[in-house]
Amino acid sequence: MLIRNENTTAFREYRTVKTVSAVFLLTALLATARIPVSHAQQVGCDDLEGFADFAFWLGEWEVFDSNTGNKAGENSIQKLERGCLMLERWTSATGGTGTSMNYYNPVTREWRQLWVSEGRYAIDIVGGLRGDAMVLEGSIYNFTGAVWDFRGTWTPHADGSVRQFFEQYNHDSGDWDTWFDGRYVRKQGSD
Q1: Is 18 inside a domain boundary?
Q2: Angstrom distance (rounded) from CA 173 to CA 170
Q3: What is the 8-class DSSP label of residue 147?
């Protein structure tokens, strides 16, 4: 008979065996609860609620600086993984590049953008539709370790263009500074 006194070696060994057994059982249950890969890849996300919220940004674009009217670059936003992911590939007018993955999480009901640039910075923002605009908020990081609050707003217009407005929080002034204000215009023949 095991005496349940936490000071005894026998009880500590019993509790350890019981904990390890529970961990193995939980691991086995989780392994069997996974969606089979073959099933997951055949389903897609096009018809699920929330996944179409950002579809207005899909396409091939020329991007212009809203203040100067000068061409800022080109952007390609494509749907992948049967509508479960949007991939962005940016090339600036000066040749700089960046890539983002954008996806909707049906559990949290939020869109998320993860951006990485050869300019040694990354953006990680989440959010969703506010009215007609997609608004994502989070952080921008440079690779030396600095972090700032950051937000992006994408607003579709009746003429088919999209405004992309990025703001970065200025810790010194306490204001939100414009980081980028661009107008997306569909490339000819890319409708």
Answers
A1: yes
A2: 6
A3: E
Three-state DSSP string of 47-86: CCCCCCCCHHHCEEEEEEECCCCCEEEEEEEEEEHHHCEE
Which two three-digit tokens encode residue 9? Answer: 């070696």
pLDDT one-digit tens code per residue, 71-129: 999 999 999 999 999 999 999 999 999 999 999 999 999 999 999 999 999 999 999 99
Give the DSSP H or E segment for 37. Answer: helix 37-43
Distance CA 88, CA 40 (A): 23
State whether 104 and 69 are in the same domain: yes
Q: Do 120 and 136 form a contact (C-beta atoms < 8 A)?
A: no
- Residues 15 and 83 both lie in one domain: no
Tokens matching residue 47:
């018809």
Helix (H, G, I), strand (E, B) or coil at 163: strand
DSSP category for residue 45: S
Strands (E), the chain: 59-65, 71-80, 85-92, 97-105, 110-117, 121-130, 133-142, 147-156, 162-169, 176-186
